[in-house]
Amino acid sequence: MADVSEVESKRDQLIFWLVYSGFIVSGLIAISVIWGVLYLTFDGQVDDNGKVIIPDVLQNWGGIIVGFYFGTFVSLIKDYMKMK
After folding, report:
1. CB 3 within 8 A of CB 21
2. CB proximity list for 36: less than 8 A, separation 6 or greater
3. Which residue spans traverse the membrane (predicted)?
């Protein structure tokens, strides 16, 4: 029969990998959105005034992504400090 500390260790490892993989996936999505906006900025369509046309959906995503990462990081640190 497995020792309680072994079960807790395996559970902690699983939680770590779930959180870590979630950060990797969301990071890849964030990088792809940012690269998409950069691509449109440098190689996108230009209107009559010479201004680059970026879709409204993508214009404010940089701030949203930074806010998401900052908010998630702060809440993880808060939870970690409660445990210690």
Report:
1. no
2. 58
3. 14-38, 58-77
Q: Which helix (H) or strand (E) holds 65?
A: helix 61-83
User: pTM for the complete prediction?
Assistant: 0.62
pLDDT one-digit tens code per residue, 38-52 = 888 888 788 888 888
Total residues belonging to the chain: 84
The label of the residue with tokens 């702060």 reads 74
Exposed, middle or buried, 55 (CB in 10 Å: 0-12/13-18/19+)?
exposed
Angle between helices 4-43 and 61-83 (to 10 degrees): 160
- C-beta separation of 33 from 58 below 8 A: yes
Six-digit token string for 70: 């900052």
